[in-house]
Amino acid sequence: MGKNNTKFLMQFAVLAIVLSAAIMVKEATSIPVCNIDTNDLEKCRPAVTGNNPPHPGPDCYTVARAANLQCLCPYKPYLSTVGIDPSRVRPLLANCGLNSPSCF
After folding, report:
1. Which residues form the Bifunctional inhibitor/plant lipid transfer protein/seed storage helical domain (predicted)?
2. Is the pTM of this model over 0.70?
3. Residue 103 lies in a domain
4. Which of 1, 56, 68, 78 could form a disulfide with 34 if both were Cys (CB 3.0 to 4.6 A apart)?
5. Can you tell me the distance from the alpha carbon of 17 to that of 41, in angstroms, rounded to the nearest whole number?
6. Is 104 inside a domain boundary?
7. What is the mean pLDDT of residues 28-40?
8. Residue 58 binned pLDDT confidence (cut-offs 50, 70, 90)
9. For residue 51, which phi and psi values (nearest 5 degrees)?
């Protein structure tokens, strides 16, 4: 593995740890990632977890519409580390009336 790949993986590992910590602690300071505050991820969590996720609610629609979806593509491999099932992202976006980026 090249030096750049190792640095890239380390940055994402750190990001995954930070996102996980921010989500687990409700009072945590929100961290903006791709126009989404990490605390706002909770508004969509039910729709992207579990075997029979419910449809996203109005608060989740707001979060999804504000997100820079293409920006999220590099994070896809790390979504499961914060409890998000990557295979549920495309249906969530469709339910919000949004087109998924090609990576999802």
Report:
1. 17-101
2. no
3. no
4. 68
5. 15
6. no
7. 80
8. very high
9. -80, -35
